[in-house]
TrEMBL record, chains A, B:
InterPro entries: cNMP-bd_dom, cNMP-bd_dom_sf, Env_Response_Regulators, HTH_CRP, RmlC-like_jellyroll, WH-like_DNA-bd_sf, WH_DNA-bd_sf. Keywords: DNA-binding, Transcription, Transcription regulation. Pfam families: cNMP_binding (PF00027), HTH_Crp_2 (PF13545). This is Crp/Fnr family transcriptional regulator.
DNA sequence: AACCCTCAGTAACAAAGGGCACAGACTTAC
DNA sequence: GTAAGTCTGTGCCCTTTGTTACTGAGGGTT
């Protein structure tokens, strides 16, 4: 664990902090598709993502979903952090997009480290900044772009995150993430196929070039 | 200035911090409608809002706008803070919604205080949390609600923020904030008037009950 | 083979929202 | 007063997106 942390976080964390994380943190390995955090849940420890990807989504009262953003290696969920610090319930759901390796750090340590380690403070701040910016991107995308563009962005991001140009999702799953309907997704995908940007198959999509 | 700070922030800030803010901060009074921060601008000091309200909005490349949220007494703009800390350009525009009194704090002090004062750290964190939650609300609203509802929410919020049930805006201005067109706003407002929720006038709207 | 289930394609229609055009009311400048 | 400019109301039509309903293809089970 230590060398992994060093590899990923060494530009942020000083050695004593790394040692503390090794000592206090608990490593977990989660297969793809698991819900690791849900709406309304209280949070007692904070995840640092060592490998894999996590998708973070929002849900309204009627169960409609919307993908907010992905977390990747070295990142952490600021929304979660905010919940920890504020001791409030989670506002979002987090699901592993790929198999993932995560260090869980107890909340109390977080506060302690904020005072103690400059590196930790910087990391936490940068995380907030990144999350805010991602959220702004999300806002842009739903406010200013039409579905065609949003779908393309979604597919691009998916390929990037999974490092696989075969997207193993059904049209229905994509529709959930974009908060639209299956029929609409099928329609637009067909259009993209005609434009030779991808090839459709049952249960997966082969992305050529977006 | 000191007693104002005490009144608003005393539950967060310890006395020595108040003293430092009084010493380092610069108070400015800004009339309604002024742009106090713009997209692409570098930021050297951070605003703490003593009184009044500030609206924060996003703009895309084509100049389309969207209201993100309002800042009210005692709040600060986390997006700005993130820019400060990351030394990047502003991603948003901030405009005074009413006359406002603001303390501007130099960025360098911020970092110093983060290490030095627990109260400052808590304040900064809570601000982040509040902003993130507001942004999530904004996402919900554009993703899950239709324009009727968004317009009503907008008017409600406006009354709350300006403490005035006469909304002194043209339909065009409302349309900008909601990122839609004037015609659509006029249409929906008329509908609300027919439902006796408000009375329309030239240049202002008298809100009855939403 | 017959059956079942999930997934994808498609047509037809509905609804929400946006764009254009124009009219009328009010405001300000002259 | 007239003229010019701004703001609002409304009718009509178009585009985008959502809904319903049905079809058939693929794959697994018995």
């Amino acid at each position: 664990m230590e060398e992994e942390l060093l590899g990923i976080f060494s530009n942020y964390f000083e050695q004593p902090l790394i040692d503390e994380i090794v000592q206090e943190g608990k490593i977990i390995e989660v297969p793809a598709g698991e819900t690791i955090m849900d709406i309304g849940q209280y949070i007692r420890s904070m995840p640092l993502l060592l490998s894999g990807a996590i998708k973070v989504l929002r849900e309204d009262d009627e169960g409609d979903e919307l993908l907010l953003y992905y977390l990747e290696q070295g990142e952490t969920c600021s929304v979660t952090m905010a919940c920890c610090m504020g001791h409030t319930k989670s506002e979002i759901r987090a699901i592993t997009e790929t198999d993932a390796k995560i260090v869980m750090v107890p909340v109390q340590k977080m506060e302690e480290w904020m005072a103690k380690y400059k590196g930790w403070r910087n990391y936490v701040f940068d995380s907030y900044q990144n999350r805010l910016n991602e959220l702004l991107q999300t806002v842009d995308s739903i406010a200013f772009k039409n579905l065609d563009q949003r779908l393309m962005d979604y597919l691009k991001k998916k390929v990037e995150v999974t490092k696989d140009n075969r997207i193993r999702s059904t049209h229905q799953e994509i529709a959930y993430d974009l908060h639209t309907s299956r029929v609409v997704v099928s329609r637009l995908l067909k259009k993209l196929e005609k434009m030779k940007k991808l090839v459709l198959h049952r249960n997966y999509i082969h992305v050529i070039d977006l």
